[in-house]
Amino acid sequence: MSDDNCCIKFCLHGAPLDLDLCCSPQEDCKTQLCSMAKTGTWQSMFSKKAIDKPWPRYVASPGTWGWERAAEEKCTLHHAGYRFIDPKKLFDDLVEGEHFNKKVCGCKTKDECS
Q1: Residue 25 vs residue 11, higher pLDDT
Q2: Choosing a second label site near 112 at 20 to 30 A (CA), which of 12, 37, 47, 60?
Q3: By percentage, how much of the chain surpasses pLDDT 90?
C-alpha cells in the first residue's frame, strides 16, 4: 500500500466479521488522539493545563506522551503486514508543524480546547 491516506475496513464480503474488526484505523486513531487532546490526558499530571497547551510530537517528561507516542500506544498502525498509519506523520491535517492540530478535533484553535 502506497497511499498513507487510504481507509481500510476489516469486513468479509461487506459484512462486519465482528464489531471490533470492522473499523477504520484512521477514524479510530483520530477519535483516540482527539479524546486525549480535548481532555489533556496526554499530560497526565497537569491535564487541565494541557487542554490549552500545544501538544508536541515528543515529550521527555515522565507521565507525558507526545502525539507520536500516543499514536504508537493507542492506534492500530499495522495489521496483516500492511501499514495504515505512520506515527511520525499521522494523516490528514492532524499535524501542523511539530504539534498536533487540535482544531481538527473541534477545538477553537490548533492549541486550545477549553
Answers
A1: 25
A2: 60
A3: 46
Burial of 54 (C-beta count, 10 Å sphere; 0-12/13-18/19+): middle
* CB contact at 8 A, 110 and 101: yes
pLDDT over 70 for what percent of the chain? 80
Angle, vertex CA 100, rays to CA 92 and CA 45, nearest 5: 145
Averaged confidence pLDDT in the chain: 81
> Position of cell 491516506?
5
Query: Which residues lie across from 12 on neighbouring strands?
Result: 15
What are the angstrom distances between the C-alpha of 102 and each of 63, 71, 72, 87?
A: 20, 14, 18, 16
Beta bridge partners of 16: 11
CA 114 to chain CA centroid, nearest Å: 19
* Residue whose C-alpha cell reads 493507542 in the numeric block: 74
